[in-house]
Amino acid sequence: MGTTRICVAAVLVMVAPSWCAAWQGDEDDELRPGLVQRITVADQTAASIVSDPIVEPISTPAKTRYVWTGLFLIRGEGTHQFHAHLSGKVTVKLGERVVLDASANQPVWISGPDVELTFGEFPLEITADVENPGDRLKLYWSSTTFPLEPLPYHALFHADDAAHGRLVELGRDIVEAWNCRGCHAVERRQPGLSGPSLKTLGAGTDVAWLRERLTRGEPAAHSRMPAFGFAANDADAVLAYLGNEAKPPALPDVDVKRSEKEVAAGAQLIKSVGCLACHVWKELGKNPLLGGGPLDDVARHRSVPWLVAKLTDPHGVNPASRMPTFALSHDERRQIAAALSTGDLPKITPLGKGIKRTEELVARGRELVRTARCGACHELPGDVAPFEIAKPQAWSAVGGERSCTGRTTDPSRRQPRFAATFNDAIAAYLAETQSQQIAERSANFGERLLMTKGCLNCHDRNGSRGLSAITKDIVRTEPTWEGQSPTLQPPSLTAVGDRLPDELLAKGVRGELPRRMDWLKVRMPKFRHSDAEV
């Protein structure tokens, strides 16, 4: 087994199974799902692993070549035909045969000749050339035994010689999740994922918990926030500034009854509506890289009124929240809050009462917020001078003493410290300078949004499993749900765009469609997507 493969396997073992499952498999099996994609613009090439060979219309005119290679598993003999909806040029080779060779100046359907195929694995090579902003490609096939359908993801494989490509992809995900580009000019593309807005911080949030997050010297598990290692007096200065400038929302006056019946009802809601797609609670859940973290201790640092407010309007509590709004009744929100706040809980001391503010302390906190580059990830209250963008991190320096993923925290430099677990992946990604420059310009932006928005945390798609991966574990905790696993699984997104018109699909993405399958316990929430994202 090669060194690179050992490295990838070691890295993947340490990450959460839900978001790396697509690249895991039997180590004795040399084939892995998906095709190797290489995108070339001018003399630069970016490689990645994809489940679907597709070209979306791009916004910047540039001559681009896409090449997908791998193996195509044919499961039955007979006459087959390959088809494309495209503008541009495409050639599809199966083994030594060209099964489709087509070009068009505007989007049209083109079909290749009939080909006789037998059972087996055949080398597949797809080459597409696009030159205009509106060029696109989607491939299909048909046979005498089945009608027109997209190339099936479950029939596409690649040999295990793309380990480095998977490592680069992992590094890319980490760089995005940690918002490295907020401080470093890693690449020029869409903004990274932000942290919570600090403009509304205060009400319902325990000041001791906030202080601990600022002073800790080790990155916390299940958290995308790095460690800063602030001294206690510096942490208090930061909190004094935030408490002085933030304008927290008014929290509801709610009466949450923690009776056995209400707690049990809340527990069933947490397990069923979709919370566990992004959160972990009582050893259930997926804990994805871009999830919302564990819920077990949330009531130890957030008040019950804050929990109810968050469930009612996530963006009212945190304008930068990535959490969607679930269709919950007032009673259901109280029941979930009851289930999350059982046990002997400490008293929540809000930010406004936990720090004695002076003008000098607030001023020092403002400067600390600037020098620590808090604005790279957070929306800040008040007037904070712009921070200086950090220099791009050389791939060879990842994990070094002065690196954000080093072994120690240096409070004097106000530098964050992230876990060193993914240093190999981050270094591999940063070393691929060409992928940093062209990957998002040429690749499908929507594919990335499916991950960053959490769609794939819930829905299955092209072999990637969402809630279906954990429904059996959930059902085991609720004896009355035996045999009801399908009610906890939202519909698969595989080829959904081929089944629904764009207008209807857009409404579904926004969460605007009426509920059709009343038997489903899981619920489609409502997101705040921009028109471009939809």
Question: Can you characterise this structure?
Answer:
It is a single chain. With 534 residues, the protein is of the alpha+beta class. Helix content is 29%, strand content 18%. It contains 18 helices and 15 strands. The chain has helices spanning 3-13, 17-20, 163-177, 207-215, 232-245, 260-272, 304-312, 314-317, 330-340, 351-354, 359-371, 423-431, 433-442, 445-452, 455-458, 471-476, 496-499, 502-510; strands spanning 31-33, 35-41, 44-50, 54-55, 64-74, 78-94, 97-111, 115-117, 120-130, 136-143, 149-150, 156-159, 279-281, 284-285, 293-294. Helix 1 (3-13) packs parallel to helix 3, helix 6 packs across helix 9 and helix 7 packs across helix 9 (330-340).
Task: Name some characteristics of this structure.
534 residues, alpha+beta, 12-stranded antiparallel beta sheet, 3-stranded mixed beta sheet, 29% helix, 18% strand, disordered N terminus
Summarize the model shown.
The chain is an alpha+beta fold. The protein is built from 18 helices and 15 strands. The chain has helices at 3-13, 17-20, 163-177, 207-215, 232-245, 260-272, 304-312, 314-317, 330-340, 351-354, 359-371, 423-431, 433-442, 445-452, 455-458, 471-476, 496-499, 502-510, and strands at residues 31-33, 35-41, 44-50, 54-55, 64-74, 78-94, 97-111, 115-117, 120-130, 136-143, 149-150, 156-159, 279-281, 284-285, 293-294.
